[in-house]
Amino acid sequence: MLQQILALVIIAFFLIRLFWQKQKKQIRANEFIFWLVFWCLVAILIFSLKWIDKLVADLGFSGKGIEVLLYLGIAVLFYFIFRLRLKLEKIEKNITKIIRKMAIKDKE
Amino acid sequence: MIKNKVIVVIPAYNEEKTIVELINKVKPLVDEIIVVDDGSKDQTAHLAEKQKVIVLRHLINRGQGAALQTGNQYALKRGGEIIVHFDADGQFLAEEIKDIVQPLKKGEADVVFGSRFLEKKSEIPWLKKQIIIPLAHLVNKLMIGFSLTDPQSGFRALSRKAVEIIQIENDGMAHCSEILYKVFKNNFKIKEVPITVIYHNFGQRFGGGIKIIKDLFLAKLMD
Fold this sequence. Notes:
- The structure holds two protein chains of two kinds.
- Chain A has one domain (2-83).
- Helix content of chain A is 87%, strand content 0%.
- Chain A has helices spanning 2-23, 29-47, 49-59, 65-106.
- Chain B has a single domain, classed as Spore Coat Polysaccharide Biosynthesis Protein SpsA, Chain A (Alpha-Beta Complex).
- Chain B is 40% helix and 17% strand.
- Chain B has eight helices and seven strands; from the N terminus they run βαβαβαβαβαβααβα.
- Chain B has a seven-stranded mixed β-sheet, sandwiched between helices.
- In chain B, strand 2 (32-38), helix 2 (44-50) and strand 3 form a beta-alpha-beta unit.
- In chain B, helix 5 (126-143) runs parallel beside helix 8.
- The radius of gyration of chain B is 16 Å and the shape is globular.
- The chains are: A mainly alpha, B alpha/beta.
- At the A-B interface, helix 4 of A face strand 3, helix 3 and helix 8 of B.
C-alpha cells in the first residue's frame, strides 16, 4: 500500500510539472496530451495492481502484475527506439539531399 | 556534342596525397572528370580545382554513396553518355577505364562491373579474399537474391539510361549492393570485366562490413 502511495506521489509531481510547463508554453499541445494520458494511465494501472495480478495469473504468467508491466514497458521502449532510428535515417537522407543540391548549385 | 561522352566520377574524401596524380592519369583517357569532394578536411578540393577539372563540394561528409549520386546527377547535366565510377585512393588502374567502357560503347551492356576475380591477378589480402568477400557474397544473396564474381567492387561504368534510373539512396558503403540490386531489378544488361586492384591499405574492414549490413537492413525497412 505504501509503495502505491509513493508511486502516486511521484506521478502527481510529474503531472504538476506538466501543467506548469504547459502554462509557461514550454511544450506543445499534442505533447502535453501525450504525457497527460501517459501518467494518468500509469496511475490507473497502479491503482488496479491487484486486478492486474489476477489477470496475469489467469493468463498463465508466473510473474506478478508489476513485473509484467515492466516487460511491457521495455517492449514499448524498444518500439520507440526503433521509430527514432527510422526518423534519424530520414533526417540523414534529407541532409544529404540539401548538401547535394548546394554542391550542384555552386557550380551553376 | 561528343558522341559517347565519357565522364568519370571520382568521390574523394581526404585524398590530397593521391588526387593530383590520379586526375592526371585519368584525364587523357576520358572526356570529362567530376571530382566530388565529400567534405574533406584537407586540400583535396583545392588541389583538384587546380587541375582544371569539375569539382563539386559537399559541405559536410555524407559518405561515398552520397558523393557518387551527386556526381551522377551532375554528369547527366553535363550530357554524359557513359559514366564511370572510380576510387580516389589510386587502387584502380586508369588504363583499365577503356576496358570497362568498351562493352558500353559497343552496346553489349548497360552496366559494366570491374571484377578482381576474373583473369587478372590482384594481390588481395588473405582475410579479405577468404572471409570478408565470401561473407559479402552471402549477404548479397540473402538480401538481394544474387551476386557477381566481385560483389563489392567500386570500379564500374553505367550508361546514361542506367544512371537516370538508378538513384543511389544509401549514403554509406552499402551503395555497392544497392546498385547491384537496382541493376538486377531493372533488368539492365550486365557485363563483368577483369580489373587489377592495388591494395595500399585494407579498404573495408570487418566493422565496415557490419555497418553495410545494418544499412541494407534499414533500407529494406524504409521501403
